[in-house]
Design brief:
96 residues
Length: 96
């Protein structure tokens, strides 16, 4: 999150991103509104100090509108039909 706040946002050229306090406030507001989700991940350089990762919350209507995403209930993944029985049925049958 630190790199995103201090390097990526200023480099993107947004007028509001030039001031440190404004960047921090905008990022905090987006996190508070759950538009951006945070999580702790191990730091390979200093394992005792995990880093905060961020990602867009693509379930939020505001995020979908900005990204131009359609209906969230229509996933991009569509399973492919395969001949034969379900894998779970095969595993259960073979365990008996």
């Amino acid at each position: 999150m630190k790199w995103f706040r201090d390097a990526a946002l200023p480099a993107a050229g947004f007028p509001w991103a030039s001031a440190d306090s404004t960047r921090q406030n905008v990022l905090r507001s987006a996190i508070d509104k759950r538009l951006i989700l945070t999580s702790k991940v191990p730091n390979p350089k200093s394992p005792q100090f995990p880093v905060t990762a961020i990602r867009l919350n693509r379930l939020m209507p505001e995020v979908r509108a900005i990204l131009g995403s359609g209906d969230v209930s229509a996933p991009d993944f569509h399973p492919v039909e395969i001949r034969g029985e379900n894998l779970s049925a095969t595993i259960l049958r073979e365990r008996r």
